[in-house]
Design brief:
Helix content is about 30%, strand content about 20%. The chain is of the alpha/beta class. It is elongated.
Amino acid sequence: MFTKAGVIVENVLSTKNSQLEKVVKPSIYSLRIEELEQWLIENGEPKFRSTQVFEWLYTKRVTSFRSMSNISKAVQDKLDQAFSLSEMKTIIKQESKDGTIKFLFELHDGYSIETVLMRHEYGNSVCVTTQVGCRIGCTFCASTLGGLKRNLEAGEIVGQVVSVQKELDEGGERVSHVVIMGIGEPFDNYDAMLSFLNIINHDKGLNIGARHITVSTSGIIPKIYAFADELLQINFALSLHAPNNELRSKLMPINKAYKLDDLMKAIRYYVDKSGRRVSFEYGLFGGENDSVTHAEDLAKLIKGIKCHVNLIPVNYVPERDYVRTPKEQIFEFERTLKKHGINVTIRREHGHDIDAACGQLRAKERKEETS
C-alpha cells in the first residue's frame, strides 16, 4: 500500500489459519523506482540510491539486503527494517516434454499461486498470476474454483518473474516476454497490475519491452476505458469465447454485468484511443461455441476492428465438463474467419502432458484453497 508520501511500511494481514493478525513487511519488489526514490528521500537518503537498489534486485538478483555491497550498512538496515526481500517458495515444479515449466509457489500467508514458463522460438515467455483465486466464475476455468481469496501485491506479481528468471539464469537464458493470463482477473487488481507493468518494463528493472508484454481481461468495461487512457504500448487481449450474449453469459457469467454490445464499444474505444490492435482470445469448446455458424457470427461481431483472433483448443479440466473440439473442426473455424478477412491463428499447445489448464495444478494440490 502506498501513501502520497511513499510507502506504508507496515502491512497488516490476517493469517490464513487463525484469527490472529501479524505484521508483514511489504515486498521491496512492489516499489516503482519513483516510489523507492521518494522513500529514500523521506528517510534521509539520496534518491540516486534507488538505481543502485534496482540494480541489485533486478540485474544481480540478490536475495539479501546485506548483499548490496555498494550501499552502507545503515541504509541496508533501513531497507531491512521496512521491506521484505523474500523469494517465492516453490512447492511443486512440473516440467513438460516441450520445455514448459509450471510452478506452484507458496505465499507468506500459506496461499499458493501458479506461474508458467513457456518456451517459444522467439524467446521465453512467463505467464503470471494476479490474484489468489478468481471471482469471475468462467465455467471452463479451474482458477475460479473456490472463488477469490485475495489480490496479490505488485511485489508478489513481480516476484514470479524474478523467480523464473533465476531459474533461467542457470542456463544463461532470460525472460523475454510476459503474459498476464494466469489465475485471477488482472483488471480486478488494477493498481498492482500497473505497478507490475512499470517495474518489469523499466530499463533499471527487468527491462522487458512493452511490446513483449500482454495483458488479458475477461471484460471489466470501466477498466478497459481506463487502460486505453493510459496510452501504454503494452499488448491487450480480451477473453471473448462467444459471439453472442446468450452463449457468452453461459460460458462467462461476467457477461451478465457487462453486456457484449457495451464491451465491444469499449474495445473500439481502446483501439481508437491507443492506435493498437486488440487480440481476441477464443477458446473452442466441443459442441458449445465451435460451429461454422459461431465463426460467421464472430466475424460479424468484430468486423472493422483492428484485431487478431487467437483460437485456443480447450485444455481438459476434470472439474469441468467441456471437451476438445476435433482438429478438422478447428481448422474449419479458422478457414471461416479467414474467409471474412479476419487475422487468426491457432494457439500451439504448451504443457499438455502436465496440469496445463489455468488453475488446475493449484486446484489439484491445494484442495483446501478451492473448497
